[in-house]
Amino acid sequence: MKRFSKYDTAKESKSKAKYSKLYLQRASCVPQEIHQNVQQGLTVLQDCKCFSQDLVQIKGKDVLTSVCRLLIGDPGCTYRYLDTRLFTIPWPSHGVEVKYNSDEIGKACQAIKDLNEYLHVEAMKILLDRCSADVEEIGFEAKTATSTVVKNSGYMEDRTYHNKQSNNRTVLKDRTSFNVALLNYLDPSRMKFLKEEPYFGMGKMAVSWHYDENLVERSTVAVYNYSCDDLIPTVDESNKMSIKDRDPALWHVGIKVAWDIATPGLALPLESGDCYFMLDDFNMTHQHCVLSGIQPRFSSTHRVAECSSGTLDYIFGRCDVAMKNLRKDPLSGISSLVSLELVYVRQTEEIHNEVEFEWLRQFWFQGKRSAKASNWWFGPMILLENSWREMEQMTKILLSEINKAEWPLERKHQVVRCLLPFLEERQELRKSWMARCQSRLANSLPVDEQPECRPYWGNEDLDMPLSFDLEENISFLRNQLMSADGDIKS
Ligand SMILES: O=C(O)CCC(=O)C(=O)O
Ligand SMILES: [Fe+2]
Fold first, then answer.
1. Which residue of 22, 68, 413, 473 pairs with 51 in a disulfide if CB–CB is 3.0 to 4.6 A?
2. CA max distance for the chain
């Protein structure tokens, strides 16, 4: 018995209904110019070695993705998945200067941006089309059910209808305004160990079953598929035997209903240039995977990343907030804290951890890989590191304030209890990032992609306000809480 159906054989209406929010657009409907520029762009990016495997975390374990990836998108935007923050290579944008390592790379980024715009327009059309079909259906039902409704209220109804339509349009526009494109590349002939699809016997997977993370709710994901057909190697017989329901030479996207392996999955065959759209809540109700064909294959996956805390503007804004509590005497140059109120202490220490672990360590963990396309991110990273160093100074000032004797005990305990968890978290996270940077997998990466444990400094580095290892500061704080009078000094 078949455990899954090919998309084009899924004729039963039940199956169709379950997958109705998956939309396929065949290559022949996509403008030739898009194919040409995108395919050339992807090849250039691959030739320039801009793609790399991500060293992500799954259930606390380090895992190297089978596919090589590259994020292109709005300048300063990031996309977070599997505990990894990817940083966009900016596509050309008004008012932002981007120096690409070559004109070819710049052209490739422009091609991805043009594809992005095309997919946005197409996604809007598909969704609006469906909306009006729904409205017609509902309108028809309403008319037949309530044929005696008041007749002279037509004007109001019309206005409400138009308002609703334009609200609807705005909502749909937001949910299809892709701000990032996550590009994938895999050459199966160079990747011998691909996992078998476990539930339906669909064969080798390039990407395992998953939901896409970090997206604006109900936003569309649009995917362009480019499989390089010019190279057609012979099919490995053993592989051919293992999958009866799909052509093992072709790439497919696999689809299943979430939390359900009883409903047959779907393997949708993709030809070069085909696009597919995961519409509305599809990504919440379904999982997808990528089933490997035999040729090398690229995909460009366009998403609306939920980036309320994921842009450079955001994190610079946070640093500014933290910095408001730092005062420097213009004459002596001595720094002090403006306020020792708990809200300010908490805010500063929280921002300190955020900039260190969500930005600096995430970025340097990926080595210098972003520099293969452009050195755009290095400037902002230096600025963030400078702000972070000021925050190290702020923590140091706070610790020395706590060390002063003149505090009422209860007040001192309050501040200590406020600060301690942030330092404990910082210590733990520094240890785990350090371990990740030194892992066997990390060391197996090409030299220019190897993780850098940054910021890192030795005790002899007198420029740094505090040491990298916070053990002593943490014991000092714990002792403060244990001592009856609160002012024991070691
Ligand atoms: O390559 C594809 O078709 C989809 C890839 C995917 O699911 C992903 O990158 O999240
Ligand atoms: Fe995905």
1. 68
2. 87
CA-closest residue to ligand 1 atom 10: 212
Closest CA to 324 of 334, 343, 339: 339
Helix (H) or strand (E) holding 140: helix 103-145
Alpha-carbon distances of 453 from 174, 243, 365, 442, rounded to whole Å: 37, 44, 6, 11
How far apart are the CA of 252 and the centre of ligand 2, in A? 13
Q: Which residue ranges form the domains of the chain, and what is each CATH number? A: 4-146+166-303 (2.60.120.590), 312-482 (1.20.58.1470)
- Look at the alpha carbons of 363, 366, 367, 368 in this order and tell me if their dihedral is positive or negative: negative
- By percentage, how much of the chain surpasses pLDDT 90? 80
The rounded Å distance from CA 288 to ligand 2 centre is 6
What are the start-end ranges of the E strands in 155-285?
180-186, 195-196, 204-210, 221-227, 251-257, 265-270, 275-278
- Which value, to the nearest 10 degrees, does the dihedral of the CA atoms of residues 26, 188, 206, 273 take? -10
Residues with Cβ–ion distance below 5 A, ligand 2: 212
- CA of 22 relative to ligand 2 center, distance in Å: 13
Q: pLDDT per residue over 331-378, tens digit each?
A: 998 999 999 999 999 999 999 999 999 999 999 999 999 999 999 999
- Ligand 1: lining residues by beta carbon, under 6 Å: 182, 184, 207, 212, 223, 253, 288, 290, 299, 301
Smallest CA-to-CA distance from 72 within 181, 184, 221 is with 181
Per-residue pLDDT tens digits for 444-484: 999 989 999 999 999 999 999 999 999 999 999 999 998 75
Alpha carbon distance 63, 3 (integer Å)? 29
CA 9 to chain centre: 34
Q: Which of 221, 223, 224, 304 to mutate to test the pocket of ligand 1 (most atoms within 8 A of CB)?
A: 223
CB of 229 within 8 A of CB of 296?
A: no
- Most informative mutation of 221, 299, 302, 303 for ligand 1 (most atoms within 8 A of CB): 299
Of the candidates 292, 385, 273, the residue with the CA atom closest to the CA atom of residue 31? 273
CA distances from 211 to 18, 176, 215, 229, 289 (A): 16, 18, 10, 28, 9
Which ligand is closest to the CA of 253, given by its number? 1
In contact, 359 and 439? CB cutoff 8 Å: no
Determine the atom of ligand 1 nearest the C-alpha atom of 223: 3
